[in-house]
Design a protein that fits this description.
mainly alpha; two-stranded antiparallel ribbon; Recoverin, domain 1
Length: 154
């Protein structure tokens, strides 16, 4: 069976939301490339911007892709296994451990992400990154948001 762009979209959405959880490079050019890839993967209406709805849908797809045993919880081990499937370039950009990523949005502090924690954390990140408060993210907002999240977690 050959994979069409439609089949790869959930995978790309998952990768890009994982990046959105705290993965970015410190170089501005690399951040812009990452943001552009994120928009391409999740931009359902093709307008070059991510709405809150598009971002939330990408976040859901990402969580489902990481939750290998489909128990509604993502462990650091599941996140590590998911990250291992990424390209070498993507892994090089990712300087945070899975446990550190989880800690960013793990509201009950148990070291595991539930679907609700992931959804709520993604929504908070969207709001933070939407610096012009227009209800959507362009690639500049995504790149700056990712860079800021990485700084906060180092």
């Amino acid at each position: 069976m050959s994979f069409t762009t439609h089949h790869w979209k959930p995978v790309l959405c998952g990768l890009t939301v994982l990046l959105g959880l705290a993965v970015a490079t410190s170089a501005a050019a690399a951040g812009t490339e990452s943001a552009e890839a994120e928009i391409l993967a999740m931009d359902k209406n093709g307008d070059g911007r991510l709405s809150a709805t598009e971002h939330a849908a990408g976040s859901r797809s990402m969580f489902e892709a990481m939750d290998a045993n489909q128990d509604g919880r993502v462990t650091a081990g599941e996140m590590d296994a998911f990250a291992a499937k990424r390209t070498a370039h993507e892994r090089e950009e990712d300087r945070m451990s899975s446990a550190a990523k989880i800690k960013v949005i793990d509201t009950n502090g148990d070291g595991v992400l539930t679907a609700d924690e992931h959804r709520d954390g993604s929504a908070r990140m969207f709001t933070t990154m939407d610096t012009n408060r227009d209800g959507s993210l362009d690639k500049a907002e995504l790149a700056a948001g990712h860079a800021n999240m990485l700084k906060r977690t180092q």
